[in-house]
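EI: anyone free to look at a 177-residue chain?
SC: sure, send it
EI:
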Amino acid sequence: MTPAQHDIILVTPEDVAIGTASKSHTHRTGLLHRAFSILIFDTQGRMLLQQRAKHKYHSGGLWTNACCSHPRPEELVSDAAHRRLQEELAFDCPLAYQYKFIYKAELDNGLIEHELDYVFTGLYEGIITPNPDEVQAYQYMDISQIAEQLHTHPEHYTAWFRIIFEQYNTHTEENIK
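SC: here you go
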């Protein structure tokens, strides 16, 4: 079963699973579902970004965080995060759960992301071998450079990454205080 074919977990705003639905139906109708996003950093504090493959069914060619997806039914979110890092970028590393939040964003092709998103962070500097079905390119960027690019050219980035980046910076600032 390809990643686009498996069912995803529908949830309440309190993160209680209430069933499953196909990925395409969920994104066409905007149903709230469980997801995860992974932010990978190097030892210089730069964030790993990937450019989604142009042929992806939505947001093709846009830049986004290292990896994001949906856990399968009966799969722990943390296990799904490690699985997708391997599937998309051919590496794995320790991941730390940071927080979860709900967002809703309209995408191209009339699709809607409405996710209860678990955010994980990790540190990695090894070999990256992107899966060409998923990733067109990748790069590490300074946080300040990403912030500037999101301000001047938000259209080059996925809708969810723009939200996640702002959320991450807010959580980071709160933890420093």
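EI: The mean pLDDT is 92.
SC: 👍
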